[in-house]
Amino acid sequence: AQSVTQLGSHVSVSEGALVLLRCNYSSSVPPYLFWYVQYPNQGLQLLLKYTTGATLVKGINGFEAEFKKSETSFHLTKPSAHMSDAAEYFCAVSKRGGKLIFGQGTELSVKP
Amino acid sequence: DVKVTQSSRYLVKRTGEKVFLECVQDMDHENMFWYRQDPGLGLRLIYFSYDVKMKEKGDIPEGYSVSREKKERFSLILESASTNQTSMYLCASSPSAWGDYGYTFGSGTRLTVV
Fold it and tell me: How far, CA to CA in Å, does A75 sit from each of A59, A65, B65?
């Protein structure tokens, strides 16, 4: 069965610092992988996705993620955090039939 | 842009009431989904639908039912609301059954059952 693990339910960084949000998945076949962001009292917005091809994927708002098959990881990074990045971030993997399995979420706080 | 619209942002209902949560998408997507979101548990799939009048149970269907009479509308029904159904409910749609497009989400309905 597919599953997604996000390491750390809460990550705090200073403004301008590197953002690293960790995601590991288990899958018996090459998966489709996603990162979503949720701002307070809103729905989820797609940040980026990996389906095939280049393993380094660039998304919106300066975020990127790298698919590492050998490590079964899809960590999300941003070189320099901004106050507006404070939100909850969800990693997800697709399941056969198109259903997404979500991780538990990581809340990112950005300190001034 | 695809829009997924959930009819209510906030709802307060009494225990035992029958509750309808409505979701409409405007891009002719065949696939629609209902999730609930709880702190520390992420998103859990309640029901999904791949076509009109077609539905399948997700991971936590107990206490819920769904209706999809038209392609654009997918309703979640709480047959007899209970306090443990207090949660954020998120509707989503997708054009692909293979998962490669991901989902477009609505803004969510925060339901409180008292």
Answer: 13, 5, 36
Q: Residue B92 and residue B25: Cα distance in Å, rounded? A: 8
Instruction: Report whether B49 contacts B66 (CB < 8 A).
Output: yes
Q: What are phi and psi of A95, to 5 degrees?
A: -110, 160
Strand partners, B6: B23
pLDDT in tens, B20-77: 999 999 989 999 999 999 988 889 999 999 989 889 999 999 999 999 999 999 999 9
Angle, alpha carbons A4-A6-A8 (nearest 5°) = 160
Higher pLDDT, B5 or A54: B5
| Best mutation target, B101, B107, B111, B112, to test chain A (most A CBs within 10 A) | B101
Reported as a pLDDT band with limits 50, 70 and 90, residue B99 is confident
> With contacts defined as CB-CB under 8 Å, which chain B residues touch A96?
99
